[in-house]
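Suppose you are handed a protein chain with no further information: no name, no annotation, nothing but its sequence. What can you learn? This example shows the usual starting point.
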Amino acid sequence: MILQKLTLCLFLIFFSYSTGIAQGKPPAGGRLAVVVEERLAALRATPQLNGRLVRRLGRGRLVAVRATKTSPDGITFFLVNVSSRTHGWIQREAVVSPNRAGDDRRLIRLIEHSQGFDRISRARIFLDHFTRSHLRPDVLLLLGDAAEDVAAQLSNDAARRLKEDPGEAPEFSYYLNYTGLDRYNRRRVNFTFDYSTKRYHYDGSAWRELIRLYPRSSASSEARKRLDSMSHKEAQKAQAPS
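A reasonable first move is to predict its three-dimensional structure. Written in structure tokens, the prediction is:
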């Protein structure tokens, strides 16, 4: 009876003890940097775009910058350590460094031009590494808004996939175990589930953190609007006849 009268929301709170992005131990030997633009993250044997490929680096990979060199065609490369045994040259635009002035602005521009999961993943990298940037309130707002946007797509994807094979377990348990949620969970982005509509919604954590840590920022007032709207919708559903 309770399930029929109330809209229940369950939080997916399986937090990762790490940053949620596979990166391993930071390598030694230089200034810390992190890969944010995997399309450019080719590690090469020489500082040239046609240099021999050593390997491709994934987003979130930590490297240590040892030296800088500009190729004849004007592309700047960093000589980086990837591990104690692996090093090479990578294009400057592929990485950002918390210790390099202006890289927080570079990353937020990349976040703003990203969508969906890519925006969330890069925003998490920003929050994990640029701990002293004055742009953190803006990134928290971007992260929360992106998460609420992807919730709609996740809901549609889950409904389509679960309709094909209902299974024997309670229906809601399939939604809460939907594999599409996994990569968001690893980025510490969690969703609530509405039993009555079978829809996911962002749990609002980034907005709450923004209000708690940066209450005087302009982004904080926007976050309050998001949370007020979320509370209003929940109240309406609770008052709706079953």
